[in-house]
Amino acid sequence: MRTSFFARNPSVPIFLVLLAAFTIGVTILGEAYGTGDISTSFTKTLGKTLCLCLIAVALDLVWGYTGILSLGHFAFFGLGGYMIGMWLMYERTRAIVERSLANAPIPPTPQEIVDGIGTQIFGVVGSNEFPVVWAFADSLFLQLLMVVAVPGLLALVFGWLAFRSRVTGVYLSILTQAMTLALALYLFQNDSGLRGNNGLSGLQNLPGLGSVPQSKVSIWFLWASAAALGLGYLLAAWIVSGKFGSVMRGIRDDEARVRFLGYSVEGYKLFVFTLTAMIAGIAGALYYPQAGIVNPAEIAPIASIYLVVWVAIGGRGRLYGAVIGATFVSLVSSWFTGGQAPDIPLGVYTIKWVDWWLIVLGLSFVGVTLFAPKGIGGLVDLWTGRRAPDRHGADLGPDQGSFREREAGE
Amino acid sequence: MSLLEVSGVSVSFDGFKAINNLSFQIGDAEMRAVIGPNGAGKTTFMDIITGKTRPDEGRVIWGEKSKSLLSMSEAQIAREGIGRKFQKPTVFEDQTVHANLLMALKNERGPLSVLFWKPKPDDLARVEALASEIALSDQLARKAGELSHGQKQWLEIGMLLAQDPKLLLVDEPAAGMTPSEREHTTSILVEAAKTRAVVVVEHDMEFIRRLNCRVTVLHEGSVLAEGSLDHVTSDPRVIDVYLGR
After folding, report:
1. Contact B114, A250 (CB under 8 A)
2. What residue stretches are annotated with the ABC transporter domain (chain B) (predicted)?
């Protein structure tokens, strides 16, 4: 039983090496420090994909290991983006306002500068006052703290109310979906204080670094995203490999039994839900500066459903499955919807992938669920020789989220 | 001085009185068998003690400090020292026998202490000892789902013992077991009852005879008779409702 952490979790060193190789490869082929074979915009796509992998790992902890099918984790992702976006937008607007006021005959007062920033940012929603939620927008440190604190707090309050009432299964999924929908609808309002449907924009421009080309910024964000994903994967692997992971899997398969062993199931669910919300917040805070814009449409329920589809297609209950699913589906998806896939003329009808991709995705989700519950990650089993047990079709526990026969290992 | 005292407990589901003014006591190191026909309220009785079902009226008093169990959650009651084995063996089938026992082992149960918990040599030795007691020493690395029905029953009993409870509630431990497996189960339970209270719900009279303990007969949610097996089986009311059929 006394073996090293890496020996017990062989996917971790393999994953970290692949991630490092990928990051170095993109850097060498990128525009800023290398040959320029990979364009800046594709570098950003890759960096964003790493962030999506991170939130997929978070969802795998919640759903694949603990059995809570959350359809609202993109709310936390979006909130993380908003929190860092507020600082980015405030500071950059301040630089612009200060420059334009510098030529005035009388030096501007601090209040005039703040008013100028307010007019710039909120003019689009017909206001020039700073709402209360922007109170700390001038402090990078506090906004970074809010990247984890705000999603964490929302998850804590929501989870406390939901888990304490023992809402489980599909009802909980609906509640999480309602949460993200309510948040999106609230943010769509112009007086929500976060610029309504305009969202926060211009996030790709880092304050004070206006002279640095985007090609460099994109590589920096790729590095930061890779580091966050590596650490997140390490943390997740450490959590699930110990007794805590045992309890999580126990809750997934048979939570009543865990309760009768003396573990407070609600406390564990709340812990996992809140922790993964914070991870999602960090992923969002790295994603949106690369995307350049965050708006309420990002946290509409469909985004969280996509996230579940990624994890399902990659294979839930294994961390690398989540990463594979998020990478594969999101890259293939951007290929199809980006108009790069060639149309297929059928004579009477032409298949345009931009329209048909969602149907392909939906069918593959249904197909994976029915015929290959292990997902793409299950292909690894062919190599490691892991087989599913023969249980004559019986699930591994009575709960709705429990592992199915073909998801398990012998 | 009793360990558990249930008095005047009633509970009804949609008008059906599952438990009707039931009273029950058990001492510190005592074995007790509970028998009764189907629908007599045996499982509901266990549900009430373990906090799964809240009674409409009555008291459930626990331990030296005479705490009421009625305001506690299932997990708190389990931490107080009441372990429960279900009728259908419920173990964590996707995890190894070792992991199952380790999870049940008496230790801190809070999320943070579990997150940073590492098994000490004592804990591992305890798991080994338990495994040999339930005859699963050479199965430790196997997934619990692969075990035979009888082995799962033993694993669940082993998990109960790992919790080091003061009171074990055991629902039909011998169901689906071969005669030799039953014998081993009997000896595990008799051994456990030397240091703690054990309540066994069972249908099989032969099994109860081997436990050689006091018997409580439940009927329609209340106690019909109590005493030695010979005493209750000769009680005409018991014969009437249960044995005579």
Report:
1. no
2. 4-245
Q: How high is the pLDDT of residue A2?
A: 53
- Chain B nearest-CA distance from A409, in A, is 8
Q: What's the gap in Å between the CA of A229 and the closest CA on chain B?
A: 21
Q: Residue A251 sits in which domain range? A: 5-298
pLDDT higher than threshold 60 for residue A136:
yes
- Residue A172: left if φ>0, alpha if ψ -120 to 50, beta else—which one? alpha
pLDDT above 80 (res A384): no
Cα–Cα nearest to B45, from B30, B27, B32, B63: B32
pLDDT at A1 over 50: no
Q: Which of B78, B102, B145 sits opposite A389 (nearest CB)?
A: B145
Q: What is the pLDDT of residues A217-257, one digit of tens each?
A: 999 999 999 999 999 999 999 999 999 999 999 999 999 99
- Evaluate whether residue A317 is within a structural domain: no
Inter-chain CB proximity B92 and A389 less than 8 Å = no
Size of interface A-B (CB pairs under 8 A): 96
Cα end-to-end span (Å), chain A: 19
Is residue A85 a part of any domain in this protein? Answer: yes
- Rounded to the nearest angstrom, the minimum Cα separation between B52 and chain A is 9
Domain membership flag for residue A356: no
Provide mean pLDDT across the span B50-60.
Answer: 92
Please tell me which residue of chain B has the smallest CA distance to A254.
B92
Q: Which two tokens stand for residue A152?
A: 């964490």
One-letter amino acid of A70: S
The residue among B182, B229, B211 whose CA lies nearest residue B30 is B211
In percent, the amount of chain A with pLDDT more than 90 equals 62
Phi, psi at B214, each rounded to 5°: -65, 150
**Which chain A positions have a beta carbon within 8 Å of B110's beta carbon?**
264, 267
- Going from the C-alpha of A163 to that of each of A63, A157, A400, B107, B186, the distances in angstroms are 15, 10, 15, 24, 40
Helix axes A40-59, A73-101, angle to 10 degrees: 140
- In the predicted model, is pLDDT for residue A158 greater than 70? yes
A286 vs chain B: nearest CA distance in angstroms?
A: 27
- CA–CA min distance A380, chain B (Å): 19
Say which of A261, A267, A408 has its CB closest to residue B104. A261
Nearest CA in chain A to B109: A263
Give all domains of chain B, ordered by start, each with its CATH number. Answer: 1-81+168-245 (3.40.50.300), 89-164 (no CATH)
What length is written for chain A?
410
The total of structural domains in chain A comes to 1
**Which two structure tokens, joined as six digits, stand for A276?**
């993964």
Nearest CA in chain B to A244: B115
Q: How big is chain A by its Cα radius of gyration, in Å?
A: 23
Query: Does the beta-carbon distance from A246 to B103 stay under 8 Å?
Result: yes
Chain B residue nearest residue A248, CA to CA: B111
Q: How confident is the model at residue A308 (pLDDT cuts 50, 70, 90)?
A: very high
Tally the C-alpha atoms within 13 A of residue A185's C-alpha that lie toward its C-beta. 7
Do residue A410 and residue B102 have CB atoms under 8 angstroms apart?
Answer: no
Q: Which residues of B touch A374 (CB under 8 A)?
A: none
Separation in Å, CA A149 to CA A67, A143, A145, A227, A282: 24, 9, 6, 20, 10
Strand order in the sheet with B167-171: B82-85, B167-171, B197-201, B31-35, B214-219, B222-227
Q: What percent of chain B has pLDDT over 70?
A: 98
